[in-house]
Write a structure and sequence with these properties.
Blueprint (H helix, E strand, L loop, with lengths): L1 E6 L11 H4 L4 H14 L3 E6 L3 H11 L5 E5 L8 H10 L3 E5 L21 E4 L4 H15 L1
Parallel strand pairs: 1-2, 1-3, 3-4, 4-5
Helix pairs in contact: 3-4
The chain binds 1,3,4-trihydroxy-5-OXO-cyclohexanecarboxylic acid.
The site of 1,3,4-trihydroxy-5-OXO-cyclohexanecarboxylic acid has 10 residues, from loops.
Length: about 140
């Protein structure tokens, strides 16, 4: 099984960025842990972070036919990007949306997601553990 982990804008700053909200682990730590965990589950995980919306869109397009499912933390694009929504609708790639923080307990502009209603699942407010939970959930869903 092949899974793609996508992280959007500012998630390259994980560990340095607002650690009271996003924690002290870096994205490199998260990706390393998740790659190892995926391989224990007979899964191959590829990882991409970008601050550019079009890079994420291209990655989703390229994943069509070669990747079984996607885990995405779209960062602030969650709340603005019709294009990401359309990319998932257009490719029909199953995906799980992850947010480190509980976006529903934050500013009201973070309550709206353009992706949630078309996601297989959503994991919110569980910190970096959310990525592992998403991987477990996606593997289960793809097996059935
Ligand atoms: C985030 C929440 C978003 O509102 C924010 O813009 C981010 C990170 C999260 O993981 O909690 O960049 O997606």
């Amino acid at each position: 099984m092949k899974i793609l982990l996508l992280n959007g804008p500012n998630l390259n700053l994980l560990g340095k960025r607002e650690p009271d909200i996003y924690g002290s682990e870096t994205l490199a730590d998260v990706e390393k842990y998740l790659r190892e965990y995926a391989s224990q589950c007979d899964c191959e995980l590829s990882c991409l972070q970008s601050n550019a919306e079009h890079v994420l869109l291209d990655a989703i397009h390229q994943a069509m036919g070669s990747i079984d499912g996607v885990i995405i933390n779209p960062g602030a694009l969650t709340h603005t990007s019709v294009a990401l929504r359309d990319a998932f609708l257009g490719t029909k790639l199953p995906f799980i949306e992850v947010h480190l923080s509980n976006v529903h307990a934050r500013e009201s502009f973070r309550h709206k997601s353009f992706l949630s209603d078309v996601a297989e699942g959503i994991i919110v407010g569980c910190g970096t553990l959310g990525y592992k939970l998403a991987l477990d959930a996606l593997i289960q869903k793809l097996k059935h």
